[in-house]
Design a protein that fits this description.
There is one protein chain. This protein has helices at about 5-15, 25-30, 40-50, 60-70, 70-85, 95-105, 110-124. By secondary structure, the chain is mainly α. The longest helix has 13 residues, at about 110-124. The radius of gyration is 14 Å and the shape is globular.
Amino acid sequence: MPEQRDALTELVQQHVGIGKRWSTRDFSEIAVDPDSGWSPSKSLVGKIIAGNGYTITPPLVSALAAGLGLPREVVAAAAHFQVIGYAESELAGGAPAILIHRLDASLADAPKSRAVAERWDEEG
């Protein structure tokens, strides 16, 4: 059974909100999909950081990647993790492993993710 977590939400929550790097308003202004020019509204960004339900779309993934200054494939891995999940073997390399490392997956409720993060720390 695939391991799942709200990785895209967590990724945005790390940087956006009260006391964080960006306010919802500031982030909605810099998070722009480079292909379409689409940007999430302040209210959508607020829903994301509140952990409320929202629809994940390709333009949203691209806009969040641009706003966070992360490679699109890492943000797409977060979206995949949130919607579909990953099998343990898929978390061992590439964008999913980078994402796990980025989220500091040392939470007690994610032992497989923690093991991957610990291995990355040892290799780093």
